[in-house]
């Protein structure tokens, strides 16, 4: 199995923090230290547009809104403590925002200009991460000010703050939503991952995942429709897999007395550490991404390496162990790219659909890496 470099986007003048593929168009947005968002085409890896003028400092994080009707909506989180919402109308899309077969892909990519529609203020320090919920109703942001904010899209470019969560004791590095439900995760400099969900009219912390011994930089949910798992990557050079125990597994446990803390009695979830991936990285792991298509996990960080892991069934004496048992599975390294950005650190890795030059999605999958060298590299994984 190999991870082959198949191209790069045009070089940027400064560090690239992250990349985010569009929900349904062959486009990728990147966030950069030079205060610009660049949109690239996945058909030919060319630069489509550059979005500037909305922020005063580095743009640290970006997220596309899913299910946007007839337009593209992009959220940007900046070191200037603000979050920006950008809009662009999309010709050639149907009522659900999907591509119309008769419309030209290149025209869709180079359509209308981007408009800086909304500024969301409230954080007291750098915004480190922004993420839309799966349904597109909520936007989560987190900051160096130790808080996680949840904003609700009320329509007509109006956003309301519905929660300010202050459960972390240190800088919050990342927020990520569960792909099938309104469950939010955050990772922090306090070495923990916290999970939140709505309890009546309030959002509450429903689980704390403590197992790392240093800063948790990145988190990514699995998406397979039948179980909930989360990967976390840390400054302690490990990647851990956490899973939510089904309620049926908790029925035999002794009942705990009701908590005096609002929301913790009925809303508490039981998440446990399931495994630690084989340790390969020699420095901080800045990014982890769990492929929704293949189930592969990719990681990258300060040592300049990209590692790809695959979950496989264990074998004993040439035979596969009991396939019905979770204990019979293990994670193995299936691809490793040293010095993927030369001597530079890698800030993020992101799985991305593959498109042909006509703008049609194919069966393949790409992996994008962003680095301090201002480059976004494009890799293809093959068995």
TrEMBL record:
Keywords associated with the record: Repeat, WD repeat
GO biological process: iron-sulfur cluster assembly
SMART domains: WD40
Superkingdom of the source species: Eukaryota
UniProt cross-references to InterPro entries, sorted A to Z: CIAO1/Cia1, WD40/YVTN_repeat-like_dom_sf, WD40_repeat_dom_sf, WD40_rpt
Keyword Repeat assigned: yes
WD repeats: 52-86, 120-152, 165-197, 209-242
Protein's job: Essential component of the cytosolic iron-sulfur (Fe/S) protein assembly machinery. Required for the maturation of extramitochondrial Fe/S proteins.
Protein name: Probable cytosolic iron-sulfur protein assembly protein 1
Gene designation per UniProt: CIA1
